[in-house]
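Data deposition worksheet. Section B asks for the primary sequence of the deposited chain exactly as it was used as input, without tags or linkers unless they were present during the calculation. Section C holds the resulting structure in token form. Section D is free text for depositor observations; keep each observation to a single sentence. Incomplete worksheets are returned to the depositor.
Section A, Depositor: J.P.
Section B:
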Amino acid sequence: MCGIVGVAGVDAQLPPAERDPMVDVLAHRGPDGRGDTTLSNGRWSAWLGHRRLKVIDLSDVADQPILNEDGSVAVTFNGEIYNFRDLRRELQAKGHVFRSAGDTEVIVHGYEEWGEDVVRHVDGMFAFAVADRRMARTLLARDRSGKKPLFYSADGGRLTYASEIKSLRLAPWVDTSADLTRLPELLTYGWVPAPHTLYAGVRELPPASYVVADERGVGDPVEYWDWPTQLARREGVPSKSLEASVRQLLEDAVRRRLVSDVPLGALLSGGVDSSLVVGLMAKLADEPVHTFSIGFPDDASFDERSYARRVADHFGTHHTEFEVRADALALLDALLWHHDQPFQDSSAIPTYLVSRLAREHVTVALNGDGGDEVFAGYERFAAAAIGGHVPAGAARLAQRATGALPEGGYFNHRRRAERFLAGAERPVLDRYRAWTAVFSDELVREAVGEPEHDPAEPMEACYRRAADLPELDRILYANFKTYLPGDLAVKMDRMSMAHGLETRSPFLDTALIERLARVPARRKVGLRHVKPLLRRSFWPLLPKEIWNRRKHGFGVPLSQWFRGPLAPLVQDELLSSDARSREVLSPGLVQRLWCEHSEGRGDHGARLWTLLTLERWLRELERPQRLTPPSTQPVAA
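Section C:
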């Protein structure tokens, strides 16, 4: 895990006063060292900067940027290549000479051998830049599921790129003013889907894509991989054979992610996915696994530590758990600094805290991210499976009865029922998009007027690409292409790298993804229990109570906080006469949402959190980019 930054083109030679801050603002991603190099052929040059987190080959010879034998090709790399040993042997057989024992160098020699097709050979989580002096070109690439971030700006013949936008904000030639035409997408999804951002001159390289920049300019992103939708309806493998394949693939994925020259552990929530990862680690490791959990005593329905403790006891792990009373006010600025843009997902708070506390013991941690994407584990998938069979008239009658359901707590049965029944007369694909939206289409228009860009387009584009599949398969495809890279991957990357903690996700292994993509959604979506295929494949491994517990995300009592400690912040900032968001949002809508929430007539916690991060972000844009994050301390309960 590292931070990368660079500039390439006909006007890319920078003085140290300009380039050094762009590297050092990424120090949290690579606290173990920094490096940079410049390649030039007289008319073209490329500067590559790097912050290093040492994980594999801790020697100085593995410091980055890494060059080839004659110094004509250089790479700066963030991530892990899980098949690097196989690639190393293949490249050595072709005559390439390696100096280090790590994974980065396979990218340099792989580029020499295959050019931009190197991205199709490497398997892992990665974002990298390769500069080629002889061809006066730069290659940027990002991994298949979007685990690692990469942002770039094309200014004439000059390419500027970095792991995080804060580095680009330090480049005066990059336009980092707000692009508020993308605000409807933020309100709809809780993030702005790639390739766009909320910055006018900054693009995000989409997952599974690469960009080539040369003396002619910066090309468009080229997609090199996709979830294999064309195979999803041809699965006819008997269940036992499929389950055996699933067991082997996930075990292999965990095994590949245990390669490390530094202490390694696991983030354990007590859910099925992270528990399975821990169980397989315990099976494969020579020593007890180090596991880490966190809990919030403010609301017992959000505290999963008892389940995590049961799993830790079952597998004999060295378990450390933390109970904190999160000061969301103190954390807000730090989280926003690391995200660089407003964000909707308040589970960034516990992710940030558990990552910081785990980093006191280990440098690498495995997690269960991606299990719900690959094995169709979200309850909304089951809702989509039955949603098309609920008559609109019956749904409207049921809506009248939702007021009798209990409200509050993690599961908030009333809110879930209302969301499921809303728009029952609409097609299932439209309803699914409405279920996942932070703000409905109607609220978006009320907030900002008629959008310049259709916020539905990113998800509609995914539906179109998978048009030959059944509706449920199209939903799974769209979820993988939008929610996973736009929300989950961003949260885990920024919150773990905030503390120099590398996190690895076995469920996002390429072979596992491709194998499960061939399995029709109807074999993966469970109506009685989530993830029936995963359950059948691994049933004996986990305690029964872990399998039988209800699906539970990694959340915080946000709605309760907005009726308590966060209430003054809304009133003092979001509703104040000098609120920056008043210039871009309807003040009447913000006031109405707040009144309904504070008076208990509605639950707008996620919406208020999104608006609050937007307000804070707009204020931050008025100030110079901070070079270090705001300091925070967890408050032990």
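Section D:
The mean pLDDT is 90.
Residues 171 and 600 are 46 Å apart (CA to CA).
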